[in-house]
Amino acid sequence: MVTDHDDANDVVQNCFIKAWKGLPNFREDSQLFTWIYRIATNESITFLQDKYRKNNSGKPIESNTYVSALKEEVWLDGETLKDKLQAAINTLPAKQKQVFVMRYFEEMKYEEMEAILGTSTGALKASFHHAVKKLEIILKDGLNHG
Length: 146
What we know:
The protein folds into two domains: 1-59, Rna Polymerase Sigma Factor, Chain: A; 60-146, Orthogonal Bundle (Arc Repressor Mutant, subunit A), CATH 1.10.10.10. It has helices spanning 5-22, 32-55, 62-69, 78-90, 94-105, 110-117, 121-144. By secondary structure, it is an all-alpha fold. It is globular, with a radius of gyration of 17 Å. It has seven helices and no strands. Residues 58-76 have low confidence and may be disordered. Helix 2 (32-55) crosses helix 6 and helix 4 (78-90) packs across helix 7 (121-144).
């Protein structure tokens, strides 16, 4: 969810501090993996919201600059395509981005995602479907106008 390496390090550090401090309260209602993943997800969302508030002073977020750059390049190499996909993912609403990353990149099952996010499998499937459709439109439009 956090694309910058330094930002990811900050989120991971905050996650493990919260997990360490919260360990005495861990009730073992879920797996340790699910509990820590939930903390990491919440920390990522909080970090991204804070970053958005700081950077959003009346102008579009950085990711929108990437999306406009989709239209500028015709030839794609693997690295460029990866950058374009990441830029497109960054334009998704937070929930769709989260579900897409968990399902596509982490190959997480909907049941695991349901336990982590507290959202029904049906809603998760719908979020993933909408995310994929939006990404298809963004990427096709960017590649066709390049």
